[in-house]
Amino acid sequence: MAEITISPLKEGLPFGRRVGGVTLAATADADIRAQLKELFVAHGVIVFEGMEACDALQVAVSNVFGPLKEHPVKNLSRVDADAYPGVVKIHSPGGSGGLVSIGSTQLSHWLPWHFDHAYNDELNYAGVLRATQIVPEGGLTGFCDGVALYNGFPKDLLARIEDKTIIYTLNVQYETMRFGKPEDFAVLSSKPVPPGFEEEARRMPRALHPAVWTRDTGEKVLHVSPWMCEGIVGMENAEGDALLEEVCQTVNRLSRELSYWHQWSPSDMVVWDNTRVLHAVTGHDPALDRTMQRTTIKGDYGLGRFENNAAGGAILSETTV
């Protein structure tokens, strides 16, 4: 049997593991696959180190955790839809826009804390990410566990949000981000989007997800995405907006202690549980290029829905490839 190494993700962090020694052959080993799946359920994030940098290994690692799912936005670039279905290319070219400033620092392609597909009724189970073009500074990807957030959240605030349902839309522009903006935040240029993206977004109904949900393990998860959230069901007013802003800013504050930020190497790959873990990106020098590749793992926690039981699934089925 192939052997792998396992170590904590970061000293004192209540989630995540590092794994070394995973090869293409190891992904076909039934015992290794079972061990990796067990680690993932328990710890929510796995950083694979010392990997061969190739598309085939990314797909093989992804399939350990479940079947691949095409991204629901058809206009995102694919690596090779025939040879490697489900592998999406996320290219951030220098000078392409998506420019913000936080304090005195200008950043390209910054992303706030979020979970993927919040705008959909069905969440993907997991994401797998690797870097194919790295910037020398910045461009870190952060991960923050919702179980740790729930356990660390102020009890009075938790009591006010725990039974609430959050509204989300497919809204990627910084200018219209409503909640959880950092201090001294300013938008310098809009985030670039593929042709037809905004029209596609307008066609989609609003999605609804619980602020807190309970895993099969009995653990409760604080799962609020500051990015793309629009309000609280039944509280789309000043009171509800103030509550949601307080929750999002508390997520920002607690994440300083409860997060892991990954500095990318071409031999790294990261898988995270999208139903449990928030992620973010620091941004980088606006003049530089950065390219990531990701796969999306099928699965759903079964608690999301579209507003008014809208037929959003039909819309999404039209956008898949």
TrEMBL record:
Residues 7-296 form the TauD/TfdA-like domain. The keyword Iron applies. The keyword Metal-binding applies. It is an enzyme of class 1 (oxidoreductase). Keywords: Dioxygenase, Iron, Metal-binding, Oxidoreductase. Transmembrane segments: none annotated. Pfam families: TauD. One of its GO terms (molecular function) is dioxygenase activity. Its EC number is 1.14.11.-. Belongs to the TfdA dioxygenase family. This is TauD/TfdA family dioxygenase.
